[in-house]
Design brief:
This protein has helices at residues 3-19, 24-40, 42-57, 64-77, 80-92, 98-111, 117-135, 139-150, 152-155, 160-169, 173-201, 217-238, 244-261, 267-301, 303-313, 318-332, 338-354, 362-380, 388-396, 402-425, 428-431. It is mainly alpha-helical.
């Protein structure tokens, strides 16, 4: 069997297993094992599996993933989201569509201590959806706003997908976090502008006049813990006081203290935080193993290296190559979650991108490409036919048809497209803060 045919067989088997609802980690593992054994034999496969698991999980850097997940779980269970939404509502309620804008702001602030898109979407939805109903917002705008706002959970640092990208490409996590901050803020502002334009062009989805919410001491005091945690974690990281892994530990501990101060952390919620962290971390680590096996099988075919040389021979500009890769991510987002996409494709695409000349250092190229991948992954969380965030939010608003929720995210997908094009042609936007980090 030719290498190209074998590659097609590996991917075909993986997609077939996914189609019958096999977990993505198991699908990649089985397809990778079969592909590896067909090329190298069973004995080398057994030796590879025996060594690879330890080699992967012995990495100290991986401990940052469960710590950031635990930090997000403490924030979710600690009642921090309600205070954020009240504060944002008090600021934005004077504008038409202000409650939707407030939900986006709350998602961005919550994402600064969460790092998960789905968790951000689900947590803010539980607080904001009843308020949307009470103020007369349409189900389309309400669910679309909350699904799109949830993507800020991975765009605003800390971001679990960005940590995984840093580990796979051996890049500095702190620099990647710095590079994501400005694009994340641009995403938030872009979503708020999309809401402002939408409620004026398409009347009937938001009230003509909203009752202004008052800024209370409770609302103001509710955001103080978030500000302290964010300053403590990222100030410590960029101030050289501790590493990103240590910063994640400090963040998890300080978020737990904030939850205790708010008196919403019960013993049951405390146990749930650790169970949810263990479950989420195990899922990610299983995907790591499956992707490692599959990528090793693909490496034996030599197809990824051949792909890089073929693309180089086409004479396309480096930016057009990146654009083509991003379009592939958009298509892949219809069948895969963000973590699986990154783990499966980065070992294939990253060497190809690094071989191109973008007129900047290799480190800056790697950081910029990571931000572009993150932007596109966020797009996949909203775009039909899957759109994981849409499913999560719509599942919490069962009276709203799923197709209405998909229509609701369309203005935000336009904003995503414009932002991605902006960052694609102007890499300096992502790299601006990175230049100030030694």
């Amino acid at each position: 069997m030719s290498p190209l045919a074998l590659t097609g067989l590996i991917f075909g088997l993986m997609l077939a297993l996914m189609a019958v609802r096999t977990p993505i980690s198991i699908a990649m593992f089985i397809a990778g094992c079969i592909g590896y054994a067909m090329q190298a034999g069973l004995a080398p496969l057994e030796n590879f599996l025996n060594a690879q698991a330890f080699a992967r999980f012995a990495s100290y850097d991986l401990s940052v993933i469960p710590l950031f997940i635990l930090m997000g779980n403490f924030a979710t269970q600690g009642g921090i989201s309600k205070a954020l939404f009240e504060f944002a509502s008090a600021i934005m309620s004077r504008f038409r569509g202000g409650l939707a804008m407030a939900a986006v702001m709350a998602c961005a602030a919550f994402g600064a201590i969460c790092g998960s898109s789905v968790a951000t979407a689900a947590t803010i939805t539980s607080v904001a959806l009843p308020e949307f109903r009470r103020h007369g917002y349409s189900g389309r705008l309400a669910t679309g706003t909350l699904a799109a706002g949830g993507t800020l959970g991975i765009l605003i640092p800390p971001s679990v997908p960005l940590v995984i990208y840093a580990i796979l490409t051996e890049q500095n996590i702190a620099k990647l976090f710095a590079a994501a901050m400005v694009p994340g803020l641009i995403a938030m502002v872009g979503y708020m502008l999309a809401i402002g334009i939408y409620v004026r062009l398409v009347p009937g989805h938001a009230p003509e006049h909203e009752q202004a919410a008052r800024m209370t001491l409770r609302a103001l005091g509710g955001v103080v813990p978030i500000a302290i945690i964010f300053a403590l974690v990222f100030g410590g990281i960029y101030g050289g006081l501790f590493t990103p892994t240590e910063g994640a530990a400090v963040g998890a501990a300080s978020t737990f203290v904030a939850a205790l101060i708010k008196r919403e952390m019960t013993w049951q919620k405390f146990k749930h935080c650790f169970y949810a962290t263990a479950e989420g971390s195990a899922m990610i680590f299983m995907i790591f193993i499956g992707a490692d096996v599959m990528n090793s099988a693909l490496a034996l075919t030599q197809v990824p290296a051949q792909l890089a040389s073929v693309v180089g021979s086409w004479g396309l500009s480096p930016v057009m190559v990146v654009a083509a890769v991003l379009l592939f991510y958009v298509v892949l987002g219809a069948v895969m979650d963000e973590l699986s996409m990154i783990l499966l494709t980065i070992p294939i695409f990253f060497p190809m991108i690094m071989a191109l000349d973008f007129g900047m250092s290799k480190e800056y190229t790697a950081i910029w490409f990571g931000i572009m991948v993150l932007m596109t992954v966020g797009f996949g969380l909203l775009a039909p036919p899957v759109g994981l965030n849409v499913y999560v939010v719509n599942g919490m608003a069962r009276d709203i048809p799923i197709w209405e929720s998909y229509r609701g995210v369309m203005p935000f997908l336009v904003s995503d497209t414009l932002r991605t094009l902006l960052l694609l042609f102007f890499p300096s936007i992502s790299l601006w803060l990175v230049k100030y980090i030694s």
